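Hey team,

Filing this mostly as a record. A colleague (T.K.) asked me to run one chain through the structure pipeline before their review meeting, and I want the input and output archived in the tracker in case anyone asks later how it was produced. No errors, nothing strange. Just documentation.

Input sequence:
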Amino acid sequence: MNQVSKVLYISQEIYPYLPESEMAMMGRYLPQEVQEKGLETRTFMPKFGSINERRNQLHEVIRLSGMNLIIDDTDHPLIIKVASIQPARLQIYFIDNEDYFRRKHTVANENNEEYDDNDERTIFFARGVLETVKKLRWTPDVVHCQGWMTALVPLYIKKAYNDDPFFKHSKVVYAVFNEEFKKPFNSNFGEKLMIDGIQKKHIASHLKNQPIDYVALNKLAIDYSDGVIQASSTINEAVLEYILSTKTNFFPYESNDDYADKYIKFYNSL
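Output structure:
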């Protein structure tokens, strides 16, 4: 069995940058514990507008910023910022863009209405992380995705970056939490996510039905992942049923706090 030495964590939420939640706490402590066990890690999250840059001491990494990502025929500048959680010696990279991540809230406004462009924000975040990892010249053995905003990462790694030396041999793990979006993605989501290496046949069976909802997006992530983790005690029943119907390597929910060792063992099994 090969031993994993480098793990890339892509998290939708990380505490203390966002309020305490199951996902945010996992995003905060899992990389730390894995790092303390001798593995090398890199951790990414969106730079939501609610994150106070001065208080959390974020600063832009000029050498990593400056790329434009084209989504729906529009250029969107990619800005990379970084901060450190000092007690843990954990560095967090933030994906930022003025159009997508400068508003005051995360995925919904002050009236709890989900943003119409959450589909494009999901695309930008996934692509932004992968392009930045390439600029870092860092090759992960495992890419661990947490939260639905990371759901496109498995597809991109397996199809668009499958021959890229930075990701060619990377295994992808997708963690499903009990945190869903309610507003379906726009009907042209499949067209927007297309980049070199992605063909319509790769997504046709997942996005053929309307609306493109939480279940459809998760099925897409599951099918292109090497392993799936149930990270909450209860998750969407349709998603769980789909996981169990596939041959995907599955790690069921663990209620105790000693998950780091078990996750590392799961990584190695892939």
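Quick notes for T.K.: The chain has one domain: 6-269. The longest strand covers residues 40-46.
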